[in-house]
Amino acid sequence: MKTSLNSRGLYWLFTAALFVALFTGFGNMPLYGRYYIADIPGFQWSGNFIANLKLHLVTGALLTALAIYSLVGFTRRPIKWTDLSALHKLLYISVTLVLLSGLLAVLKNFAFLKPGLILNMTLTIFHMGTAVLVAVVGGLTLLVQTKKNSS
Prior knowledge:
The chain contains five helices and no strands. By secondary structure, the protein is an all-alpha fold. The chain has two domains: 1-79; 81-151. Helix 3 (49-76) packs across helix 4 (86-107). The radius of gyration is 17 Å and the shape is globular. The model has no long low-confidence stretch (mean pLDDT 85).
C-alpha cells in the first residue's frame, strides 16, 4: 500500500508518542528511580514524578489529537474496516480503549468528581492493562508487517 509522506510522518509521530506515553506511564509507578534507570545519563528526568506525569499528560493529549485526526481521515478513505487484518483491528480497538480510559483517568482528577477508591483503582488497572495490550499488539503487528515486507 502506498502512503504519502504526510501519512508516514504522522505514523512515526504516533509511534514515537505512543512509546513516550508507555515509558512515562510506567515511570508514574516510581520504577525508574528504584531500578536506577534515572541514573542513566539523559534519563534523570524519568525519576521526577511531576516531570514524568506532565510529559505523560501532554503525550496523551497528542495521541488523542492524532487518533481523532486519524478517525476523521479513516472515514474519508476508501479503506473499509473489513479490509484490515485481525491484528490491525485489535490494535485500533486497544488504542481506543487506552485513550478512553486515559481520558476518564484525567476526568477523575477534577475536584467535582469523586469516583471512590474501587472505581479509581479499577480505572487505573484497566488503563495500565490496555496500555500493555497496545504494546504487545503493536509489537506483534510490527513483527508481522516486517516479516511480510521482507518476503
